[in-house]
Every structure is written in structure tokens, then in C-alpha cells.
Amino acid sequence: GGGAYGAAKAGGAFDLVRFVQQPQVLARIVSAVFALIVFACLVGDGYMSRPEDPELFCVFNHNEDACRYGIGIGVLAFLACIFFFMVDVYFPQISNTTDRKYLVLADLGFSGLWTFLWFIGFCFLTNQWSWTRAEDVYIGADSARAAITFSFFSIFSW
């Protein structure tokens, strides 16, 4: 039967298999993996230095803001996925329909905002990558492309 704001009545037993098969849970897991890939690529290979100069710079056209933006939205998206995943676990136990409504609206609003931020991040990283000179990137080109690609995928997963 129908429930309040997309969940069964409160107090039911937790079924892990049924829980993981829910579309919003699968989308949240995919979004968390994409966010993890983006910030891991940027933290791991997003900064490099020249052999003659030990100072690190961002591979995206030497623009520190590009790396910071990608890392920032990636980390925050990953943490938000964990938070909303926990909300999804406890959601059936919440009996107050007003609380359920606010949680669903918060999830919807955050997802909309983060979809927009991922779009901005994809455009920003792509633009900065297009201005990056090939001789400035010794290693890290694949990680930069992966960060751009998974930023694009994140637009749709959120």
C-alpha cells in the first residue's frame, strides 16, 4: 500500500536487499562513487610540479580555483550522499509525516542544487582544460579527463 512521502508505515523490519534495490538508493550509491572518483582524481593527480620548480600547480591551466572547486563539490557531494543514505535507512522508522515531508524536500532541494553545481563544475573544468597547454601536463592528464567525465556523469546521477 501507499505510505507517507514514499515510504511504508513506520515500524517495519529493515530488509537490506529490498533497501538496496530502491532506485533512490542505487542513484545515491552511484552519485557517491562518481564524487569519490572526481575528488580522488583531483587530489591524487590534479596538482603537479615542473622538474625545475618544486612548487605545485593545478593541471587545469594553472588555475587553483578549478582544482579547489572540483575537490570541494566532490567531497561535499560524497558526504551528502552518506548523510542522505543514512536518512534513507532511518526513513521508514520516522512516523511523523511532517518530518518525512521536510526530509524529502531537503533531499530534492539539495539534489537540484548539486545537479546545478556539478554542471558548473563540468563547464569550469572543461573550459580550463581546453586552455591547458600540453607541455604543462606531464602526468595527470588522464585523471583530469576522468574528473571532467565523472563531473558530467554526476549531473545526471544527482
Uncertain regions: pLDDT < 50 for 5+ in a row? Answer: none
Radius of gyration: 19 Å
Strand content: 5-15%
The domain count comes to 1
Cα end-to-end separation: 27 Å
Helical segment count: 5
GO cellular component, one term: neuromuscular junction
Protein name: SNG2 protein
Organism: Falcunculus frontatus (Eastern shriketit)
Family: Belongs to the synaptogyrin family.
Short description, anyone?
With 158 residues, the protein is mainly alpha-helical. The chain is 67% helix and 6% strand. The longest helix is centred in the C-terminal third of the chain and has 34 residues, at 97-130.
What does this structure look like?
This protein has a two-stranded antiparallel sheet with strand order 1-2. With 158 residues, the protein is mainly alpha-helical. The model has no long low-confidence stretch (mean pLDDT 89). The two termini are 27 Å apart. Helix 2 runs antiparallel to helix 5 (141-157) and helix 4 (97-130) runs antiparallel to helix 5 (141-157). It contains 5 helices and 2 strands. Strand 1 and strand 2 (53-58) form a beta hairpin. 67% of the residues lie in helices and 6% in strands. The protein has one domain (16-157).
